[in-house]
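On clarity, I found the account of how folds are encoded harder to follow than it need be. For illustration, here is how one protein appears when written out as sequence plus structure tokens:

:::
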Amino acid sequence: MDKLFILTNSLISPTDSLDHLADIIEQEQFITDNIYESIKKLNIIKFTKKTYNQIKLHDYSNKKFEMEIRCWNENQETFIHSNPSNGSIVIILDGMLEIIKYTNNPNSIKIINKNKYTTNKTIFLSGSKKELYKIKATANTTSIHIYSPSSETKTIYNNFFN
């Protein structure tokens, strides 16, 4: 966990660097293994029946980045949503997530693609307002989500697709 915190805080400009950080994490398997072991020791992984559990990691968040753990039961999902302007990183520590990408046009929201990702995969999701996302667990899953900047809120689009 501390290795991820050091990496995020070493970035000078998160605007151009969040996707680069995702590449580093993806290439360095030991980072994900270290993170998952650290999180298990914190004893904070808890699944809930109604919706996925979001656990903000206050000690690992700052003005540039916000980090949280999500614990998903199979078939739990987010609403369609935007990301903060610098984007987000999803690190799948255990399980499988389907990420559905949408295009956000003035009069419609349409699916661009759907991809499934498994344990140890790191994904960068754009902060472009023209791209929206929905994340669904296709198995019980534990993941880390890093958002930048931490102060920006995400827009939720809950009146469109299921």
Summary: The chain has three helices and ten strands. The radius of gyration is 15 Å. The chain has one domain: 2-157.
